[in-house]
Amino acid sequence: MRSPRWRSPCTSPPRRSRSSSTTSPSSPAAPGSGCSVRAVLSTGSNMGDARGFLGGVVKRMLPVRASSLYISEPWGGVEQPPFLNQALLIDAPLLTPHSLLAACQELEREANRVRDVRWGPRTLDVDIVDIEGYTSNDPVLTVPHPRAHLREFVLRPWLEIDPDAVLDGVPVRTWLERLEPQGVRRLEER
Ligand code: A4P
Ligand code: MG
Predict the structure, then answer these.
(1) Is 173 among the residues known to form the active site?
(2) What is the model's pLDDT at position 114?
(3) d(CA 126, ligand 1 centre) in Å
(4) Ligand 1 pocket: which residues have CB below 6 Å?
(5) Residue 122 catalytic?
């Protein structure tokens, strides 16, 4: 069982760069001086104005990087329309992983997300895929996301914005190579 481990970046030593293409130069983060949480989000929608819902998250989260939009066959066995998916790399000016989860759920509420069928259709899903320096098995917030490595709709957009990304100690590129194709197609370049 992986127990939650978290040290706020406000009190941690400077962040070590995991990938020069996606991390800003390390600098000591002092309390009150803009400390932040580096995280990867996966957004998805297959109801209503899907493009508008994903765009709304980008406007609110102001990601460091946002992937192209991807259209993907539904994963999980529920018959439903295809999804639009996107990956975002964010530096959230937040102090705890749970405050980031609360922010994600607030965005889902604003999109009138109804929790009905598990893995079923939704106006907006905002999942936390990974948080730098944090792991947890808590069902309220499991990090890394427990099904991310199984999902091309998560891995492919993530790889686009961070080609050196690592998930649970394994390169995201390798996780992707292990998957059978799942019908995920890039819609447009940003
Ligand atoms: N939770 C725990 N860990 C996390 C995390 N890392 N990020 C908890 C976000 N939430 C996390 O989630 C249920 C609970 O998980 C939350 O209350 C939170 O405390 P939910 O969003 O209410 O329920 P859900 O999304 O229906 O269930 P689940 O298992 O999270 O579904 P997924 O995994 O999000 O899958 N196919 C394609 N092609 N594209 C998609 O985007 N999405 C799904 C939903 C299914 N198939 C899909 C897609
Ligand atoms: Mg979810």
Answers:
(1) no
(2) 75
(3) 8
(4) 44, 72-76, 83, 85, 115, 118-119, 125, 127-128, 139-143, 145, 147, 153
(5) yes
> Residue 27 domain-assigned?
no
The model's pLDDT over 147-171, given as tens digits with 9 standing for 90+, comes to 999 999 999 999 999 999 999 999 9
Q: Which residues is 83 bridged to in the sheet?
A: 72
CA dist 56 and 170 (Å) reads 31
115 is catalytic: no
The position carrying tokens 């949480």 is 37
Q: Which of 91, 127, 130, 162 is catalytic?
A: 127
Inside any domain, residue 5:
no
Instruction: Band the pLDDT of 116: cuts 50, 70, 90.
Output: confident
Which own/partner contact pairs does 138-142 have at CB distance under 8 Å and 24+ positions apart?
138/4, 140/98, 140/101, 141/97, 141/98, 141/101
Distance 125 CA to ligand 2 centre (A): 5
Does a structural domain hold residue 56? Answer: yes
Closest CA to 123 of 51, 186, 70: 51
Top mutation candidate among 101, 116, 152, 187 for ligand 1, by most atoms within 8 Å of CB: 101
What φ, ψ does residue 18 adopt, rounded to 5°?
A: -90, -30
Domain span including residue 162: 34-186
Identify the band that residue 186 occupies on the pLDDT scale cut at 50, 70 and 90: very high
Q: Is 168 a catalytic residue?
A: no
Domain count, the chain: 1
